[in-house]
Amino acid sequence: MQRYKGRAWLVDNPTRTIRNGNMQYDPNRMFTEHGLERNLVRLNPSASEADRKRIHAVVAKTREKFLRELTPPKKGLLIVLHNNSRGYSVTDEIEISNATSLAAPNNPNDFFLCTDPKDFEILKRSPYNVVLQNDARGEDDGSFSRLAAKRGMRYVNLETAIGRLEQQREMMEWLEKNLP
Fold first, then answer.
1. Cβ within 8 Å of residue 145, ≥6 positions away
2. Which of 45, 57, 72, 175 has most Cβ atoms within 10 angstroms of its Cβ?
3. CA distances from residue 139 to 55, 94, 130, 135, 142 in whole angstroms, order as listed
4. Do residues 63 and 31 lie in contact, with contact meaning Cβ atoms separated by under 8 Å?
């Protein structure tokens, strides 16, 4: 943030999931009730309905306020940086995407996911993999990208494999220089 204009939100947590009592959930699956429920059931298979409802209530108290904080101004752009595990890649997103450009098929863990078709047209000219998801295909997973698409928000998720900080910086530089 010293080199770029904007605002940063940092998530500092030793694990991908958040713990609340005996329950855990993925913070990128809490942006819809349906997605949160799917995530709670998957990560807490023996949890009672009452335990799941408790987490729904906790998340619901602050979800919309948090979303207002994250939402960029009109025509603004929200860029999210994610580090993914080696098992997750652009190929996981192809089937639920509206368009795809695989400029770097040998680096499937490093890619852009965007929600704006104009941004996709620019990003597909990059040397990186990119997918466009501007309508929600497949089941609601509760992710912010799906919600951003549904709300018509300009959103770019910059995904890189864990440990590829230089790749992430390179991709961020490309974004900063090329997206208006």
1. 113, 115, 133, 155, 157
2. 175
3. 21, 14, 21, 12, 9
4. yes
Q: From residue 23, how far is each of 9, 27, 40, 47, 53 by CA, in Å?
A: 24, 13, 8, 8, 11
CA dihedral 70, 76, 82, 86 (to 10 degrees): 140
Instruction: Return phi, psi of residue 145, to 5°.
Output: -60, -40
Confidence (pLDDT) at 1: 63
The whole-angstrom separation of Cα 72 and Cα 54 is 30
Residues 6+ apart with CB under 8 A from 82: 28, 157, 158, 159, 160
Residue 116's SS3 state is: coil
Least Cα distance to 128 among 77, 76, 173, 78 occurs for 173
Averaged pLDDT, 42-52:
96
Q: Write the DSSP symbol of residue 52.
A: H
Q: Is this model's pTM higher than 0.90 or not?
A: no
| Sheet of 99-102, strand order | 77-84, 154-161, 111-114, 129-132, 99-102
- CA atoms of 36 and 161, how far apart (whole Å): 24
Residue keyed to tokens 């996911």? 113
